[in-house]
From TrEMBL:
<keyword id="KW-0813">Transport</keyword>
<dbReference type="Pfam" id="PF13459">
    <property type="entry name" value="Fer4_15"/>
</dbReference>
<keyword id="KW-0411">Iron-sulfur</keyword>
<protein>
    <submittedName>
        <fullName>Ferredoxin</fullName>
    </submittedName>
</protein>
<keyword id="KW-0249">Electron transport</keyword>
<keyword id="KW-0003">3Fe-4S</keyword>
<dbReference type="InterPro" id="IPR051269">
    <property type="entry name" value="Fe-S_cluster_ET"/>
</dbReference>
<keyword id="KW-0408">Iron</keyword>
<keyword id="KW-0479">Metal-binding</keyword>
């Protein structure tokens, strides 16, 4: 998928800090020290991480993660 782009988004209004995304895909997500909520790491949006990002999105009990591809 040369030229394809991917964007991974964590909805901060829905994230509850369960940390399952980080446990599932630490190459894509990290957890903020102050509240444990997740964020996408620099480079986490790389299309080579698509499978990992989708697995993390599926693991989120709050459904706070979106993986958008074109």
């Amino acid at each position: 998928m040369e030229g394809a782009t991917m964007k991974v988004v964590v909805d901060e209004n829905h994230c509850q800090g369960h940390g399952l995304c980080f446990m599932t895909s630490p190459q894509v997500f990290a957890l903020r020290d102050e509240d444990g909520h997740s964020y996408v790491l620099p480079g986490g949006d790389d299309p080579t991480n698509e499978q990992a990002a989708r697995e993390a999105a599926a693991s989120c009990p709050e459904r706070a993660i979106s993986v958008i591809t074109d």
